[in-house]
Design brief:
This protein is mainly alpha-helical and about 425 residues long. The chain is built from 14 helices and two strands; from the N terminus they run H-H-H-H-H-H-H-H-H-H-E-H-H-H-H-E.
Length: about 425
């Protein structure tokens, strides 16, 4: 991209969406039952993201207080996906306009501390892809908690929530399983919107045809993923809340879980392929490490599918454990060989892969132990968090393995 407008737009999208994703992350994790963060602490922490976002935008993209203000304003507009629920509680007409003004003001305030140094204009679209991937990872964590808490049917209808417009469902009613399921839906809208904007940004830019098509594929995937998530609850397209008219599908729930992890890895791949570092690197001669890395991506995908079976229908635990040994050996071999025999991003990814595999084995060992030793009843909070961390780490391993397999085709000049 050479014109100033696309570059400026990519910076706004990256820092505006990035600020909102940071606020949603704090807000979601801070209100996860039962460890509820007090509002007097959580609120200021979330608001602090606005001046921080304005500072980072002005520091790395230039533009001074205007850049900071527009960053804060965009983040606040995105936050209306949640704050719209205040309209149902009768206070929205006061808070919603004020939130936009406050967001712009706090973003501008943060930009004041960035100074007025020269900033080289650049395209932030690859960074925006990473922001979208970060939002997708948060969504994966939220989905993992939904499964761990068996809260997938806590809200009986879709796309409404208890007959309400999803964005107008009162926050005060979000408790227990409803919190996990409804928050998952709201996070899904943020990911869907981010993916839509990313696909449009790629299509309008001077990226390769392959990257543009991959962006369109990501958009198609997130739409399908949203439909699968909804039909998992209702079984068909209907607004009814009557259980007699609904046929929840565990099969669609499992497909939804697998596709979510593949989608996350695809966004990481998109961020790499759209970046200037990838374009500037030279092709690398093919060798055995490439084949090993590709094979590892495939077996990790199969292992994640087995994990979905274990979590949803409690089937195949021993197969999953046996396959974990193969995943560990193959992954350590691929990571170590990349670490030792290549340079650049692939070597760093090899180190990260080795570390994640060791963490994953530890999490999986403890998760399996507690499954075997618990004598029925509802899983305690720490067991839920452990199982969710195991699932989320698996998604990270798939994404890192995909990135490693791709970067093995390039080496820095």
């Amino acid at each position: 991209m050479t014109s100033a407008s696309p570059i400026s737009r990519s910076a706004l999208l990256t820092f505006g969406f990035g600020t909102s994703v940071a606020m949603w992350t704090l807000g979601y994790l801070g209100r996860v039952p039962p460890a509820l963060t007090p509002s007097w602490l959580l609120g200021p922490l979330m608001l602090l993201c606005l001046p921080l976002g304005g500072y980072l935008a002005a520091r790395y993209a230039g533009g001074g207080i205007v850049r900071g203000a527009t960053t804060g304003l965009l983040a606040s507009v995105l936050n209306l996906l949640i704050l719209g629920s205040l309209l149902a509680e009768g206070t929205g007409w006061i808070w919603l306009p004020g939130s936009l003004v406050m967001g712009a003001a706090l973003g501008a305030l943060g930009a004041l501390f960035a100074g007025k140094g020269e900033v080289q204009p650049r395209d932030f679209t690859p960074d925006f892809a990473y922001v979208t991937a970060a939002a997708a990872f948060l969504l994966l964590v939220a989905g993992g908690l939904v499964t761990s808490k068996d809260a997938g049917l806590a809200v009986p209808d879709w796309p409404n929530s208890f007959g309400n417009n999803m964005f107008m469902y009162p926050l005060s009613r979000m408790s227990g399983g409803i919190y996990f399921e409804h928050a998952h839906r709201l996070l899904g809208t943020l990911v869907g919107l981010s993916t839509l904007v990313l696909a449009l940004q790629l299509w309008r830019g001077s990226f390769s045809r392959g990257v543009k098509r991959l962006g369109a594929l990501a958009l198609s995937a997130v739409i399908i993923q949203g439909i699968l998530g909804g039909l998992r609850v209702t079984g068909r397209f209907t607004l009814s809340q009557d259980a007699a008219e609904l046929t929840p599908s565990i099969g669609l729930a499992m497909l939804h879980g697998v596709l979510g992890q593949v989608f996350f890895a695809g966004l990481v791949l998109l961020a790499i392929l759209s970046g200037g570092r990838w374009a500037d690197a030279r092709p690398r001669e093919r060798d055995g490490v490439m084949k090993l890395a590709r094979a590892f991506v495939l077996i990790v995908g199969l292992q994640l599918a087995l994990g979905v079976l274990v979590r949803h229908v409690s089937w195949g635990l021993w197969i999953h454990i046996s396959a974990a040994v193969i995943v560990l050996v193959l992954g350590l071999l691929a990571g170590a060989r990349a670490w030792e025999s290549v340079r650049g991003p692939a070597a760093k990814l090899g180190k990260i892969l080795v570390a994640l595999l060791l963490v994953q084995v530890t999490l999986g060992t403890f998760a399996a132990f507690f499954i075997w030793t618990r004598e029925g009843g509802e899983a305690p909070a720490w067991e839920v968090l452990l199982a969710t961390a195991h699932q989320a780490t698996g998604a990270l391993i798939l994404a890192i393995a995909t990135a490693l397999a791709v970067w093995l085709y390039r080496e820095p000049v």
